[in-house]
Amino acid sequence: MEQWFVYTMVALGAFGIQRFLYKVSAEKKCNTAWTTFSFMGTVAVMSAVLFFTAGGSVENIWFLIFISLINSASFLAGTITTIEALKYISTSVAYPAIRLNTAIVVIFSILYFKDNLSAYQAAGIILAITVIVILTGSAGNGRDTVVNSRFRRGIVLIFTAFTSGAVAAISSKFAAIGTNHLAFIALSYTLSMLFSFLLRSHLQGKDENPDHRNALVIGLCMGFVNFVGFYALLRALSEGPLSIVISVTGMYFVIAVVLSAIIYRESLTPLRLAGIVLTVVSITLMRM
Question: What is the pLDDT of residue 11?
């Protein structure tokens, strides 16, 4: 097994646990800004300490700043909207829909990095569109206006997370091949930490827990697993093809959905199960 694929599998496992912790934060009604502040701050400190103790250096500081700004803004937007979406929509609907942005990343990789599009990948992209229709059909029967109103709000958040996630993945590829990995992680997450702090009041609604201790602890745990996963992802992207690495790590949602079903007793309706299965199939096809 090639080393970049080993790193890819490590990232897959770490991201699956991280996304389940998003669900934990949503269930405990934590202020998302405080959760992400703790999350981003933990990763920033860990990567900065390792960068300086290893005597790391950066050749092009302006490229590092530029790519870190793009990655920070997109990743933070994706993180916040994902956690917020999970307050309105179950993980079995939200995560498969968000991870369909793998199709965008694969197409970009084919056009920019000249990856060859196989018949399997084309089939996977077509199947991805079908999954969106199936997951939308799982919203309900249209009679419960309260449920549908919450679902519509969740869909808007999912779309934002969908788009932001694609930008974050693509910018990570450029960072992986163009700058010091630890320096990139440290700067990107430091910026995200600062942005999160600025949003703390805006995300403190009447339903959010005013006691932020849970948010800080959950964010700390997110930070540890994300640091492992993101560093492994950058190592995989520096050696392996973007289309395959992102497609494989994109299956993290299966881990999060299974853990949510076990721990939070989330129901998996036939339509949602079909959506999950077809999403896995579509991502699998796109990495062939």
Answer: 96
- What are the boundaries of each domain within the chain? 3-286
Look at residue 140 and tell me whether its pLDDT is greater than 70: no
The token duo for 64 is 């590092």
Q: What is the DSSP string of 186-206?
A: HHHHHHHHHHHHHTTTTT--T
With CA atoms as reference, report the closest residue to 36 among 232, 231, 222: 222
Span 177-186, pLDDT tens digits: 999 999 999 9
Q: Are 3 and 239 in contact (CB under 8 A)?
A: yes
55: left (phi over 0), alpha (psi -120 to 50) or beta: left
Structure tokens at 261: 């079903």
Q: Which of 175, 203, 170, 201 has its CA nearest to residue 188?
A: 175
Secondary structure (3-state) at 139 = coil
